[in-house]
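S1.2 Input.
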Amino acid sequence: MGAFTRGAGLAVAGFVLAAALGGCSIGGPTGQDRADELASQLKNSGLGVRSAKAIFQSSFSGGLSVTVVLSSDMVQPAYTVTAETLGSVLGIVSRSAEEMNVGGVVSYAEDEEGTDVSMVRATEDLGIAEALDGSALLLTPERLEMLARQ
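S1.3 Output.
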């Protein structure tokens, strides 16, 4: 009888571990459901985000990819974004990412025609220029925590 109990316990433990590692959420919103909510928050934020797409990447540490399309009045000459706008957008992204407990966020900004919007000056002004890799902003959990507090 002890072997049966131990086997059942191992089966339950295996199921819980598989659900946790697979990014499954038992009885609650999935990672993608939360990512969709983040995209909706960004679009309705009043920050000039015309549309947003957030993709939850279920993996061991979980990740989030966020692309915002900025309205034309938010895109500065030479296709740049201000630190004020980027900081406000990243604040929303960071708070959601912390709640989702993701391992990191990759963020992109585009104009309404799909052209990449430069975040160079804005990331310098925000003190996070080293997180910029081409047109992608790579945010670690530590940086997300810092941005969520701003």
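S1.4 Remarks. Residues 30-149 form a domain with the GMP Synthetase; Chain A, domain 3 fold (CATH 3.30.300).
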